[in-house]
Amino acid sequence: MKRRAAALLAAALCLLCGCASRAAAQQTAEPEGYLPLRYATEFSVAYYPGGAALLTVGEDRFVLLDEGAQVPQGLEALPTLALPLRELYVASSSVMDLFRALDALDCVGMTSTKAADWAIPEVREAVENEAIAFVGKYNAPDFERVLEANCPLAVENTMIYHNPDVKERLEALGIPVLVERSSYESHPLGRLEWIKLYGLLVGKAEQAQTYFDEQTAKLSGVLDAQESGKTVAFFYINSSGAANVRMPGDYVSRMIELAGGHYVFADLPVEGSRRSTMNMQMEAFYAGAVDADVLIYNATVDGGVDSIAQLLEKSELLARFKAVQNGNVWCTEQNMFQQTSGIGGMIDDLHAIFSGEADGTEPLTYLYRLH
After folding, report:
1. What gap in Å lies between CA 330 and CA 311, rounded to an integer?
2. CATH code for 226-369?
3. N or C terminus: which one in the chain shows less Cβ crowding within 10 Å?
4. What would the mean pLDDT of 129-140 be, rounded to a whole number?
């Protein structure tokens, strides 16, 4: 009887020890610090002892490892990225300019945008010379070519969610996919702050911090200036004749506000949507923007317009708008959305328009006046 009791006690102790061991094995190591972020909220980086870090973007997580670093306990099942990264597949065109600003285009091996579609000269030249290979559109890439290049990471934008099979196939080939979410940032400088992430990935974290600090410092006078009182509409006319406008809280409408303007569609119902734009019938657009002090036509989609006359060809109703009659209509340059690193300059250009400083002879960088 005593032997049986002793055996049962021993078994119980073994069971308890086993459970304790498994519990210890399932524990996750604690980070020792985080990448400082002032504006960005759509990604985070937690640092662990020994040169490891945990990158979180939305629901996706990646372990970043410096040379010789070990995966932290509890994170073994996550995809790992050995830093610094080279031969990246960058399918998100807005991200490429951040690599250019870091002088890190040599870290990018592939893109899904043709040379002719690049508004950034350095990138266009790199694609033309095949220093960066065009491997097909983002929704139909040359998987074999991406695989043969030993690509360590594919950087996609949120459009890839409309083609989940592409993301799944890349991951099945052993290529982690980072879906960058900078377009979800509510603050324009949060969008720029993603340069810190890409600097970390390619071994240029200090350069990224310096660049970000320099760009934000240039804006200190603009951000501290008084509001101009100017009302502003930002739009383009789509193929159906409707006006496509930015949503409230979108980074473009926020840039307008930071530059001292008031976005005329700031009260549109958002209803939890993360869309950056919406289509509006011309009657509704007329009601909301007819008295706007400034009209800004978004040239990104349809190639833009060169004159007021061309703008009126899209909708004769625009002739009744206050800004058209006062000659205060502007158009975006093609580089406005690809050149993410220039967000500070974009806000500066907008401020020049709203304050009247743009009435001089010096051309702006990202916008031009229609005559």
Report:
1. 11
2. 3.40.50.1980
3. N
4. 96
